[in-house]
Amino acid sequence: MKQLPILFLLFFLFSCQTEKKETKFFKVAYKGALKNMMQKGDISGKVELSKFKEVNNFYALGAFENLKGEIQIFNSKPHNSLVSGNSLKIDKTFSKKATLLVYASVKKWKNIKIPAEVITYEQFEKFIKKAASENEINTEEPFPFLLEGKIQKFDWHVINWRDGDTIHTHKKHKTKGMYGTIKNKKVEMLGFYSEKHKAIFTHHTRNSHIHVKMAKNGVAGHVDDLLLDIGMTLKLPNVN
Length: 240
Fold this sequence. Notes:
Blueprint: H1 3-23, E1 29-31, H2 34-40, E2 47-48, E3 58-64, E4 70-74, E5 77-78, E6 80-84, E7 87-91, E8 97-105, E9 109-113, H3 121-134, E10 143-159, H4 170-175, E11 177-193, E12 208-213, E13 220-227, E14 233-237
Antiparallel strand pairs: 1-8, 2-8, 3-4, 3-8, 4-5, 6-7, 9-14, 10-11, 10-13, 10-14, 11-12, 12-13
């Protein structure tokens, strides 16, 4: 009978170590919430990007204050985008504020080949969860991911909200600025997956929020929809 307390203690210690294994390599955090934009019209700045300028291995996405552009930071390098006249401008600084920001620091990534049958956004989200579970990531908590390779196509937008407009809809967020569809191009995409943050940093119909950047100062911004191509790679935080 004396062995039972010892067994319980060992089980408790093992459980703590397992939890640390899942969380010590990255921790997703966020500022702002989509529901506050949509329901309250709150698009004020919530955090200075300069706060993260010295953070190593930093990955983030979101929107500038007053919804004047999109934020995408890959490995501590900003590739933010905003509308300037009739063109898209890439901002590589930490000089602005975010009204929404989702972020994490990830030191190591693990490459995972995406099966050829995974094509649509919905199929991709299911694969993300499956791959995360198989690679010891706690899918009950939010986690970041990367998507790289040549893509069939993706729909994108960069928001440029009109000053004084207090009526927010998902459609207006997609069309008040620049938007379009790009086909058969190499991309780098950053996303955050969570089943518990709808209307916080994912829309109510999605479990992920994805932004994109392309080489040579091409398009960068929010991804509205996508179709994957054969040979693309999913990257998940390496927790081993």
